[in-house]
Amino acid sequence: MEPDKKDSPPTTGADTGEQEVKREVIEFVKMVVWFLALFIVLRTFVIEGYEVQGPSMEPTLQTRERILVLKLPYVLSQWSLFGGWDPIDAGDIVVFKSPGDDSKRYVKRVVAKGPKKRGSKTVGAEEHPGDAPSGSTVSVGTAEGKLYVNQRRVEEDYLPAGADPHMKDSGEATLGPGKYYMLGDNRGKSKDSRVFGPVSGERLIGKAVLRFWPPRKLSLLQ
User: Fold this and answer.
1) 218: Cβ–Cβ under 8 A, 6 or more apart, which residues?
2) 46-73 pLDDT tens trace
3) pLDDT digits (tens, 9 = 90+) for 186-219
4) pTM of the entire predicted model
5) Domain 42-117+137-220 adopts which CATH fold?
6) Residues 92/204, Cβ–Cβ less than 8 Å
7) Is the separation of the CB atoms in 65 and 217 below 8 Å?
8) Rounded CA gap, 165 and 16, in Å?
9) Where are the domains of the chain?
10) Which residues are CB-neighbours of 187 under 8 A, at least 6 positions away?
11) Is 119 helix (H, G, I), strand (E, B) or coil?
């Protein structure tokens, strides 16, 4: 005779449905966690949206318009692998931390930047000990409503037609490596480098690349 076998409890349709619901809940939670992780990574290191407040960039940017700021190139430029690469150029619109308050963000235009940083293995054979390296600084200032970089007048083609030409004159500033001179396009109503001086590269967040709100004004920023 065969030994007795205990019967397995029958599986009901209700049990199967409950297991299926649990699996779906777990998969949904996993998806949410991955989505949040991806969102945090993108927002921290790649791209982030900001709302413009104030008139300092008019008419290029108006209050309550929303912009996308590309962070990744600047984040990569801080790595030693990309040493010497500066993704920010004169004429770019950038977002940066206020020189006096880390909690505040400003959006301005870079009108001049300091010379390129030298790599740790770069030497200048033509220089004498104690001499300042050739091109080690850049001078920038405004006079009679005009911008001058290294004593040369700069034609600001990036300013749109209708921009307020008024510019409060400033003294000459000297930019070393990793320093940027920021001005608002609305020069008469902008708190910028004429007030707080050159901005250190460590305070940069990224380059404003796209206006996405309101939808009717969707456009790349220049």
Assistant:
1) 210, 211, 212
2) 789 999 999 999 999 999 999 999 998 8
3) 988 899 999 999 999 889 999 999 999 999 999 9
4) 0.75
5) Umud Fragment, subunit A (2.10.109)
6) no
7) yes
8) 73
9) 42-117+137-220
10) 145, 164, 165, 166, 167, 168
11) coil
